[in-house]
Design brief:
about 240 residues; alpha/beta; seven-stranded mixed β-sheet; about 15% strand
Length: about 240
């Protein structure tokens, strides 16, 4: 059975429905899936109707890489990050999802959108929603983990909000050094400027990344840009 519209649009419909009807996201996803002829969202994903970008992106991320994932809202950057974390767990590794954006319950619900469930990954995946998330905090929490551990940061701009933390450039340098030293795979999600859609280009670029303060984005070793359900991965090193 085929779906009528790209999956990122279905996810966006579910988010709007959840807000409008005050439903949990997982229930809204199920309702949207039912309009496509599936019993539930998990069945839509399991049917193989879609191949999430994370399944192909994760296979191209070697240990020690520091990845920027950038997109406009609703394009699936959080789901790509979570998908990479799930792929790591399925491969027998470990993962962290550090978020200053969502609650733990929201993260657990989002896992359904990448064909997983919290019960399946909780033994090897940590969801951290602490207000103190910054580079030093992440390094402290993730230090000593397995080679190839995936660390997702949601999202980049929020690391720069609290003055008690180091400036963003210093934090990025620390995270890059940590990834290289430990063989971790660090995936940092980022917003893209609202002017990008008017550019007519198929994907955003580094110049489109919205930054509160100037920072050298070539501190990242790779950049992945999302648009209309597709992903473009580039090497920066």
């Amino acid at each position: 059975m085929k779906i009528s519209t790209p999956v990122f649009k279905l996810k966006h419909q579910a988010k709007l429905l959840a807000r409008k009807s005050k439903l949990p996201l997982h229930k809204a996803l199920d309702i949207v899936a039912q309009t496509e002829g599936f019993r539930a969202w998990s069945h839509l994903m399991a049917a193989g109707s879609v191949s999430p970008p994370s399944s192909s992106v994760f296979g191209k991320l070697e240990p020690g890489v520091f990845v920027l994932v950038a997109a406009r809202p609703g394009q699936g950057k959080t789901l790509l990050g979570l998908g990479c974390a799930v792929e790591a767990v399925k491969a027998g590794g470990s993962a962290f999802h550090f978020t200053l954006e969502d609650s733990e319950n929201v993260v657990h619900s989002r896992l359904l959108s990448v064909g997983s469930d919290w019960k399946e990954v909780r033994e090897r995946m940590t969801v951290d929603t602490s207000d103190g998330i910054c580079a030093d905090y992440i390094i402290e929490q993730a230090g000593g983990m397995d080679f190839g551990t995936v660390i997702v940061i949601d999202y980049l701009q929020l690391l720069d909000q609290r003055r008690v933390h180091s400036d963003l450039a210093t934090q990025l340098q620390a995270l890059r050094s940590f990834a290289l030293a430990t063989g971790s795979i660090i995936v940092a999600l980022s917003q893209v400027d609202r002017s990008f859609p008017a550019s007519g280009r198929p994907f955003p670029a580094l110049a489109d990344v919205r930054l509160p303060n100037p920072v050298d984005l070539t501190l990242f070793t790779k950049a992945c840009f999302l648009q209309n359900g597709e992903a473009a991965l580039h090497s920066l090193a």
